[in-house]
């Protein structure tokens, strides 16, 4: 058998082996591609689930710290001009219910973050958040042990409650901004619109809060609804006796 015949038989055998092996190779490649696509689908599902959980966490904390807590603060601020009556009770109940719902929603958001997120506490949002959760519950407990009006510890309680409430409100607003930034860094999604909307809301609440003192001042001055007091004339500043003398002189 010559060299060419041996080479021909070798080529035939090699072709036959390749024909047999090619389906196995193609099937293994398809399996690898299927496994890779399956992993990609799982990763996409996990990222979508994580993104949804982050959005729900942010909504709960906004509803707690960005809405309900300011509403409670504005309600108790408006009650300062009320002496007693039904309006004072309504404002007090609005304050209490708003703050309790705020604590519950913040607790739900905290549970979500501890269970579903990577709590390495290596950023501002997580570090401020863990301290904020503790202050929220401390403020709630202080609110439940409110002394009666006129008691010795009432002024001390009021000062602590006011200072702690102000700190919680400021930290809550700050943590919402840091949370938006953390959401942007984790998902690469834009946050400019939400930042502008929240800034407008905070500005409106701050303006209304500061306007409360001016509103009471305006009411005391009697300039609302065109009820500005009329300045007395020269005749009105005369003493009663002088008025009588003037009237007798005019009649004579």
UniProtKB/TrEMBL annotation:
The chain crosses the membrane at residues 59-78, 90-114, 126-145, 157-178, 193-211. One of its GO terms (molecular function) is transmembrane monodehydroascorbate reductase activity. It is found in: Membrane. GO terms for cellular component: membrane. Keywords: Electron transport, Heme, Iron, Membrane, Metal-binding, Signal, Transmembrane, Transmembrane helix, Transport. Its cofactor is heme b. It is a multi-pass membrane protein. InterPro entries: CYB561D1/2, Cyt_b561/ferric_Rdtase_TM. Residues 1-27 form the signal peptide. Residues 13-219 form the Cytochrome b561 domain. The keyword Membrane applies. This is Cytochrome b561 domain-containing protein. It comes from Malus domestica (Apple).
């Amino acid at each position: 058998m010559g060299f060419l015949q041996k080479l021909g038989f070798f080529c035939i055998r090699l072709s036959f082996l390749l024909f047999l092996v090619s389906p196995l190779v193609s099937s293994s490649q398809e399996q690898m591609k299927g496994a890779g696509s399956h992993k990609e689908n799982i990763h996409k599902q996990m990222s979508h689930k994580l993104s949804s959980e982050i959005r729900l966490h942010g909504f709960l904390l906004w509803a707690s710290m960005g809405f309900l807590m300011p509403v409670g603060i504005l309600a108790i601020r408006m009650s300062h001009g009320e002496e007693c009556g039904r309006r004072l009770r309504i404002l007090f109940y609005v304050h209490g219910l708003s703050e309790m719902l705020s604590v519950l929603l913040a607790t739900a958001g905290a549970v979500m973050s501890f269970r579903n997120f990577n709590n390495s506490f290596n950023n501002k949002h997580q570090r401020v958040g863990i301290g904020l959760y503790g202050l929220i519950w401390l403020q709630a407990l202080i609110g439940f042990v409110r002394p009666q009006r006129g008691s010795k510890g009432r002024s001390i309680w009021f000062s602590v409650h006011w200072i702690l409430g102000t700190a919680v409100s400021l930290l809550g607003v700050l943590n919402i901004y840091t949370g938006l930034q953390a959401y942007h860094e984790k998902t690469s999604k834009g946050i400019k619109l939400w930042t502008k909307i929240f800034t407008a809301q905070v500005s409106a609440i701050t303006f209304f809060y500061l306007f409360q003192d001016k509103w009471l001042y305006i009411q005391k001055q009697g300039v609302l609804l065109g009820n500005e007091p009329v300045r007395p004339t020269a005749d009105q500043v005369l003493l009663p006796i002088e008025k009588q003398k003037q009237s007798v002189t005019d009649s004579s």
